[in-house]
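Dear colleague,

Thank you for sharing your sequence with our group. We've completed the structure prediction you requested, and as agreed, I am returning the results in plain text so they can be pasted directly into your records. Please verify that the sequence below matches your submission; if there's any discrepancy, let me know and we will rerun it promptly.
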Amino acid sequence: MEKRNFFFKVENDALQLRIPGKIYPLEAALSATYFFIDDFYIFLAPDGPAGVIVELKPKKKMSKARLDAAAGEFFNSLLAETLRLNMNETNKKFREKLLEQALASALSPAKPSDPDGPLGPSPACDETLELELDAELKLIIERTKDASYTDDPLGICVPFGTAAPAKTAAKSAKPKPAAKRAPRRK
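Please find the predicted structure tokens below.
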């Protein structure tokens, strides 16, 4: 393939773009082409050891001025993708460390706070509170050991679509009007 000295040209109703690999990484070129997939058929060809030729063939007829504008948009996208890749590489260690710390804190058991710290002792450190909670839990277990899942002491188990029995005359006197809904958009 002969060496081409252009960045873009319009030829045979298609836009050809030469992407120098020394300036733009291949991954950035591939990412930039994605933004043009709706309006163009995209063809790629190697250009030297690291470069690539991108041909954008419009799916619908386009004027030369529109193709020239698409070339500018493509190189703007290419630059944005190159900068995104550079920022990702620059921040890679920071992101990895942040994720490592987040996962480590989520997986490690909770540590009781320092009793002499600025927030004082945590409830987990207070032994009397633990004893009170244990006693309360034992009491709840004792009261509910003979209970069944079918019991309904509060009267809240009502089949869907049936009205709950009125507890007082005030509540059953007059139903509230239904709230008006905004019309649906189509």
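Summary note from our side: The chain has a mean pLDDT of 78.

Kind regards,
the structure core
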